[in-house]
Write a structure and sequence with these properties.
Layout: H1 3-11, H2 16-20, H3 23-35, E1 49-53, E2 70-74
Antiparallel strand pairs: 1-2
Length: 75
């Protein structure tokens, strides 16, 4: 399946948990954290990290898997 086809498939899913359990989404999370050197971009913490969307996951469906729309933050 091409990247475009994967995005179309994911963008049609209504349930957020369903999307977040896909391999593509998990790969996005991993890529964001790796890009940010496994550190919170705000404070440099290296524990309790999450990949967050800059533009809302819910409202900006086309950007869900865009690496430029991700940021690593701690909680």
């Amino acid at each position: 399946m091409s990247q475009k086809d994967e995005w179309i498939d994911i963008s049609k899913r209504k349930n957020i948990d369903e999307v977040r359990n896909t391999k593509e989404y998990k790969d996005w999370v991993k890529s964001i954290k790796e890009r940010d050197n496994e550190e919170c971009v705000l404070c440099g913490a290296d524990q309790h990290l999450e990949a967050h969307h800059v533009f809302s996951f819910k409202n900006f469906v086309p950007l869900r898997l865009n690496l430029n729309n991700g940021i690593t933050l701690c909680h």
